[in-house]
């Protein structure tokens, strides 16, 4: 874990820069911007998923392919790369390998100083890529196929973003998405001082923040947004590789903007990136006892010996729940973009 500390400090440094971007005026003009996407789906069979740490949760098929989405922002002095990849987490070894590959092609343009890699935290993609005993225990060690798929996906997405750089600007918008996330530990939350709780309307964050990238020619290039929710609509019985609710939302957005083209194609790139999602669940029906259906949100246990307590919903099964949560978040994000496109059309007519 020691090696994580300098990495975290570095990420924090970049994150501060990122926050500065967020806090600046709503329209940030005159950048060079590039967006790119590449497939990162690893082995879809026989490999234990990363997330639930359940050794019998091995892949046996595919629900939704996973992708890496890259965004390059350059203000003429400095270049910054943000990547969001559909995976459970990102480790230092993945990052180092991506940087090594980028160095071969681009020299010192992309280094640990300006490349930030984030993962959506889906719990349904193949594990074994962290090179750390604790994280790779459930996969019984390193899985080269998982590692390579993620590294190659990230690298390719950055290459594509690099090749797509054009002049553009950035718009930042905030909205609210209701009924798409709940607090996983409301009893713990209630231990916070009342004076603090009184500052907030809800016991989880409902704000969606979106950065919209628009070309100098007014063509929409892509978006990155952040909404706090775990990509765990697909539960720990799922054995189909999936990007879960966040990946699904990306696919919906990209489909809309890319003239309904097939999944993973089209120039417009939309990342639904991870943010303050700790203890935030998408399973909005809340924790219930498996058989009695009784609310078990206080103790997380049920009276029977074998009866489990787990959260689900809002759909009738995990596939429907994934779709419902994805559509809710997508809808808010898409409305912002639609409003922007509308405004650009008006401007064009004037
Ligand atoms: C979608 O189709 C329209 C009309 O055919 C075209 O103007 C636009 O550039 C297309 N957009 C993308 C992202 O391919
Ligand atoms: C479950 O019960 C707790 C109180 O024991 C309550 O705060 C919570 O809203 C209930 N959840 C649901 C989904 O009914
Ligand atoms: C997972 O979802 C399926 C429905 O898709 C349900 O049958 C199962 O009980 C759920 N299990 C857990 C542990 O959430």
From TrEMBL:
EC id: 3.5.1.23
Signal peptide: 1-29
GO cellular component, as recorded: extracellular region; membrane
Keyword Repressor: no
Record keywords: Hydrolase, Lipid metabolism, Metal-binding, Signal, Sphingolipid metabolism, Zinc
Cofactor binding mode and count: Binds 1 zinc ion per subunit.
Mitochondrion found in the keyword field: no
Names of required cofactors: Zn(2+)
Entry-linked InterPro entries: Ceramidase_alk, NEUT/ALK_ceramidase_N
GO molecular function: metal ion binding; N-acylsphingosine amidohydrolase activity
Reactions listed under catalytic activity: an N-acylsphing-4-enine + H2O = sphing-4-enine + a fatty acid
Residues where Zn(2+) binds: 121, 230
GO biological process: ceramide catabolic process; long-chain fatty acid biosynthetic process; sphingosine biosynthetic process
Domain Neutral/alkaline non-lysosomal ceramidase N-terminal: 31-344
Enzyme class: hydrolase
Annotated catalytic residues: 281 (nucleophile)
Family the entry assigns: Belongs to the neutral ceramidase family.
Name of the molecule in the record: Neutral ceramidase
Source organism per UniProt: Camponotus floridanus (Florida carpenter ant)
Lineage of the organism: Eukaryota, Metazoa, Ecdysozoa, Arthropoda, Hexapoda
């Amino acid at each position: 874990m020691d090696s994580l500390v300098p990495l975290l400090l570095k990420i924090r440094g970049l994150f501060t820069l990122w926050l500065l971007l967020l806090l600046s005026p709503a329209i940030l003009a005159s950048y060079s911007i590039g967006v790119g996407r590449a497939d990162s789906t690893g082995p879809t069979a026989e490999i234990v998923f990363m997330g639930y740490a359940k050794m019998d949760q091995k892949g046996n098929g595919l629900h939704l392919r996973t992708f890496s989405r890259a965004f390059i922002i350059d203000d003429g002095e400095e270049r910054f790369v943000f990547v969001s990849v559909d995976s459970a987490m990102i480790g230092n070894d993945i990052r180092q390998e991506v940087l090594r590959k980028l160095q071969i092609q681009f020299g010192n343009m992309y280094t640990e100083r300006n490349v930030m890699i984030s993962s959506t935290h889906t719990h349904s993609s193949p594990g074994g890529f962290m090179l750390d005993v604790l994280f790779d225990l459930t996969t019984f060690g390193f899985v080269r196929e998982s590692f390579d798929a993620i590294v190659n996906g990230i690298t390719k997405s950055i290459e594509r973003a690099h090749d797509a750089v054009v002049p553009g600007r950035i718009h930042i918008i905030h909205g609210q998405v209701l009924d798409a996330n709940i607090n996983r530990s409301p009893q713990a939350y209630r231990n916070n001082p009342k004076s603090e709780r009184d500052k907030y309307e809800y016991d989880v964050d409902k704000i969606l923040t979106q950065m919209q990238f628009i070309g100098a020619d007014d063509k929409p290039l892509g978006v990155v947004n952040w909404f706090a929710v775990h990509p765990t609509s697909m539960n720990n019985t799922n054995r189909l590789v999936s990007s879960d609710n966040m990946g699904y939302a990306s696919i919906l957005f990209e489909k809309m903007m890319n003239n309904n083209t097939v999944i993973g194609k089209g120039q417009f790139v939309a990342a639904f990136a991870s943010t303050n999602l700790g203890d935030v669940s998408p399973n909005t029906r809340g924790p219930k006892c498996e058989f009695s259906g009784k609310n078990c949100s206080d103790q997380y246990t049920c009276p029977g010996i074998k009866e489990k307590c787990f959260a689900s919903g809002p759909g009738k099964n995990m596939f429907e729940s994934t779709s419902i949560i994805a559509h809710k978040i997508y809808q808010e994000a898409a409305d912002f973009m639609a409003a922007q496109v509308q405004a650009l059309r008006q401007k064009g007519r004037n």
